[in-house]
Specification:
The chain has helices spanning 43-51, 84-89, 94-98, 101-111, 125-137, 155-167, 183-189, 208-242, 271-282, 330-338, 374-379, 394-400, 417-430, 447-458, 471-477, 495-503, 533-540, 544-577, 583-614; strands at 3-14, 17-28, 32-37, 58-63, 69-72, 143-147, 175-179, 192-197, 200-205, 287-297, 303-314, 319-323, 345-350, 356-359, 385-387, 390-392, 435-439, 463-467, 480-485, 488-492. The protein is α/β, with parallel strands linked by helices. Among the domains are: 3-207, Rossmann fold, CATH 3.40.50; 533-614. β8 and β9 form a beta hairpin. α4 (101-111) packs antiparallel against α5 (125-137) and α18 packs antiparallel against α19 (583-614). The chain is globular and about 65 Å long.
Length: 616
Amino acid sequence: MAFLLGCEKVRVEFPTKTVFESVSLGVDEGDRIGIVGRNGDGKSTLLNLLAGRLEPDEGRVLRNGAVRVGVLGQFDDLNDDATVGEAVVGDRLEYEWAGDARIRDIIAGLASDIPWDARVGALSGGQRRRVDLVRLLIDDWDMLALDEPTNHLDVRAIAWLAEHLKGRWRQGAGALLVVTHDRWFLDEVCLRMWEVHDRAVEPFEGGFSAYIMQRVERDRLAALAEQKRQNELRRELAWLSRGARARATKPKFHVAAAQALIADVPPLRDELALKRMAMARLGKQVVDLEHVTVRFEGEDGSVRTVLDDVDWIVGPGDRFGIVGGNGAGKTTLLRVIQGLQKPSAGRVKIGQTVRFAVLSQHLDGLSDVGGDRVRQVIGRYSRRTMLDGKEMTPAQLLEKLGFSRADLNEPVRDLSGGQRRRLALMLILLDEPNVLVLDEPGNDLDTDMLAVVEDLLDGWPGTLLLVTHDRYLMERVTDHQFALIDGKLRHLPGGVEEYLELSSRPFATAAGGPVGQRVARPGASNPSGAGTPAETARAAKLSGGEQRALRKLMQSNERKTGTLRGKINDVRAQMADADPTDFTVLGDLQSQVDDLQRQIDALEEEWLEAAEKLGE
């Protein structure tokens, strides 16, 4: 692999902070690297440094003279007065770009719904982001440096971008550096991770999931080293105070298998207990939508239907996620649920005990306290709040959300975007609502803070409605997902992946059932577990020999699956015994686990097909 660029003993210092101290690293052809770290630790600074947009205070940036680097910043430099066509292709002649299949595919994938002659200044934030991405991606680059490329994109655009980046270069060619808080995107696209922390950059092999496993092991070893140091200090103090003591037997630590790291971790949340608490706070009724339709009339007299005959029951303790393309009507649906938007037709029933709280994208709740300091804001709250069965004071909650003592004296308006979002969420929780509406809560948060917010929400006893384009956050925090497509609301038993499949084919024929069908309560249909009449009839058409053969296949697949799972446990035990800094060995072992898992997936799919034929 050829060297493309890197840095050697680099130091970067700003007036109030040293960001990097003696950092050396490199990017080779074929690298696909995700950059993670806490807000403010220097992820964007590192990207700009390697891309040549920032000069180091000490050390040097090395670059292969021929390498071409394309950079996507957090904010675009598009000319507001230019048309979309001018922003994307510039002064290229039409036959030059229109005749290139690659360019046509990029435009179709990201900007097919944006008028070519529209003025850039009139576009929404999501549309501007997509135009800026198209502008960058249509050119040939040896390396792409992308800073938060998924910001403002919906899940379909994010999925398209991931597929494009995976196939943009042939294997072993090109290079990618990406800063993003979207953990699904990191896992899908990246082969290595760089963690920026404490003025240094630490490399990890594998995508985000592999990085988390290695980081857990690193933290465990660090905790053991600290425990050993503390024990030694205690022995020294005891010797000084009481004289020499008999030598104690040193504890021996067994390096457990990687799977054992999470073997004793309880479920993410106790759904039954949370629902019981929610029932006590909310009663039986939260929000019922009955045949709700919402239409808007345009200036030209045209009528647009945003919600079309929607039936939906939101009950106490439900944790629902809502997905859909930009402009699909998600915000309108949330306004209807809160009683802020009257439907054109149908009824909305809101329970008498319901108390809504909304975390909006623009953090409207902080507009009145911008000039106050953080300590003044939390000083107005004396009550404790219950989370995960524990009482927490405002100060404890603030500390859990990553605020330091120094942050308490900062004016709210001077906080970073991530800090403002965390403060807004804390104030909402302290108001003790029983229905929480979150609109893109993951914006501006780093991956560590996202995990903290997820942990807080796991213990929150109430009804949760979430709108986000972060599919990892969506499927992690909510129990059921729903899609808004063409004004219809549809339950997604298969999660966001099912939504992507639905949105790629005509909605009326997707996944069985007419367009206008009522959205049932998840898990309410077919409670007995028996096959439907159609499945039973299909099974009855099979001969006795065919049914025996299918059942034999299912039993065989179950045995094979058990054997393969045992092999996975053996390989994970080898990973635990391996040197945690030997990324080559860990990568090979992880590849074995992935291969065994693929075999299990194939056997389970074959098992499900046989069960479907039998009507079981």
